[in-house]
Write a structure and sequence with these properties.
By secondary structure, the protein is mainly α. The chain has one domain. It has three helices and no strands. Helix 1 runs antiparallel to helix 2 and helix 1 packs parallel to helix 3. About 5% of the residues have low confidence.
Length: about 230
């Protein structure tokens, strides 16, 4: 009877530990997914925030190492408890076979050990649940911080874009003004050139008239003499 209760308690503890391992694995997957998603968004939106990204990666790496250590410690404790339980069951079988008259005493001692093991397992389970809750809260906080940084960077980028558009419009207005002024100057030069050309043409025409007026007239042609 004592061995059955002890085996059942050990199986229950192993079941709860497997459940906790499954929860830790799910949290690790969520943490890695959050790390991948956070890194992707930071790389896309936070160009220039390398130092902060490195700090976030360091924090995630520290959390991963802590979770790996916690899993290793839990596995070690499970293996040690399993080995200890197997050795204890073997010793109980030998003792029950050799010392049947001490069965009641052994049952009492076995019950005490089962209660102590169950109490220790429950305490360890409570600690693991508290650790899981803490890791979940840290994952949520990191996701919230990453979203906040993305939003802040987007706002800064939008403000910079507005300023660049304003600067581009100002430069376009200046270019249009200078282009208009250049065209006006070109038109003025063409008008001056045409005016000067007309004056020169008039002057040349006046000189030609004067030249024609001062040239002697050619003699009239004599009629041909008859042969």
């Amino acid at each position: 009877m004592a061995r059955t209760v002890e085996v059942q308690a050990g199986n229950q503890a192993e079941f709860e530990l497997r459940e906790l391992k499954s929860t830790i694995s799910a949290l690790r997957s969520s943490l890695e997914e959050s790390q991948h998603s956070g890194n992707a968004r930071v790389q896309e939106a936070l160009a220039g925030q390398d130092a902060e990204a490195r700090e976030l990666k360091t924090t995630i790496q520290a959390l991963r190492e802590g979770m790996e250590k916690m899993r290793f410690d839990a596995d070690s404790r499970v293996q040690a408890a399993t080995a200890s339980s197997a050795e204890e069951i073997r010793q109980l079988k030998q003792t029950a076979q050799a010392l049947r008259d001490q069965l009641d005493k052994q049952r009492f001692e076995a019950d005490a050990r089962v209660q102590a093991t169950a109490a220790a397992s429950h305490d360890e389970i409570r600690q693991l649940k508290a650790t899981i809750q803490s890791l979940r809260e840290q994952v949520d906080k990191q996701r919230f911080d990453a979203d906040a940084r993305v939003q802040q960077t987007s706002a800064l980028a939008n403000d910079e874009i507005r300023q660049l558009k304003k600067t581009a419009q100002s430069l376009r207005d200046q270019l249009d003004e200078r282009t208009h002024s250049f065209h006006e100057q070109v038109k003025a030069l063409e008008r001056d050139k045409n005016l000067e050309l007309r004056e020169m043409q008039n002057h040349i025409s006046a000189l030609r008239d004067q030249l024609e007026a001062g040239r002697p007239k050619a003699p009239a042609a004599q009629p041909p003499r008859p042969n």
